[in-house]
Amino acid sequence: MIRLNRLSYSFGSNWALKDISLHVDKGEFIFLTGHSGAGKTTLMRLLYGALPVTRGQASVAGYDLHNIKRKHIPNLRRELGVVFQDFKILPNRSVYENVALALTVRSMPKSIIDKRVRAIIRALGLESKTYSNCHKLSGGEQQRVAIARSMVVNPKLILADEPTGNLDFELSMHLMDVFKQFHTHGTTIIMATHSREILRTVPDAKIIHLEDGQICEPPDYILSELNL
């Protein structure tokens, strides 16, 4: 699913990622940990094709990111479900329209779009907001819209950057149940999180810890929380 070999990314003279080597197999659940600025978001944006590879090799879902042509990036992204901290939802469109857009661009039949959109909206507890414009929603509700949009396409790989950051504990646990359902059906998930409670929800997940753009051993507090 993902193969990184000595992957590096720089902006100017600053190296945001340095010699990252990582193999992620189909169906794995990966937690990315590390302090703010450690490189988690940069790594996810690179996997999504939003940033170029400066040095090294990177393959995602069969696409060579070092040599990928711009016209092929949309094909890569159709394999992915992505939740970044800037939700990128359309504020003047309804919840339904935002979630449906991911399927509409794939030219799916309207009956299938409607069924899948309503199912994921219901699963994420947004049913009462189905036709509300997104600019009227709270930050936590907008975050769930972004998550619903990423999941409705049944992606092979989900990249989720702090997906529970604006949610309370109860909603966070409910959301993790939804992520785990997708994982049970074979979806590969890479999730960045600062939350120890979130880490505990998937005890068999692999932990990838970043410090200053490099993969390091997870600190003791993470290992002790997970009894590793």
Write the layout of secondary structure elements.
Layout: E1 2-11, E2 14-24, E3 29-33, H1 40-47, E4 55-60, E5 63-64, H2 73-77, E6 80-83, H3 95-104, H4 110-123, H5 139-151, E7 157-161, H6 169-184, E8 188-192, H7 196-200, E9 206-211, E10 214-216, H8 220-225
Helix pairs in contact: 3-4, 3-5
Compact description:
With 228 residues, the protein is α/β, with parallel strands linked by helices.
Task: Walk me through the structure.
It is found in: Cell membrane. By secondary structure, the protein is an alpha/beta fold. It has a single domain (about 25-50, about 80-225), classed as P-loop containing nucleotide triphosphate hydrolases (Rossmann fold, 3-Layer(aba) Sandwich), CATH 3.40.50.300. Helix content is about 35%, strand content about 25%. It is built from 8 helices and 10 strands. A 6-stranded mixed β-sheet has the order 6-7-8-3-9-10, sandwiched between helices. The mean pLDDT is about 90.
Q: Using DSSP, what is the number of strands?
A: 10
What is the average of the pLDDT values?
92
The CATH topology turns out to be Rossmann fold
CATH class: Alpha Beta
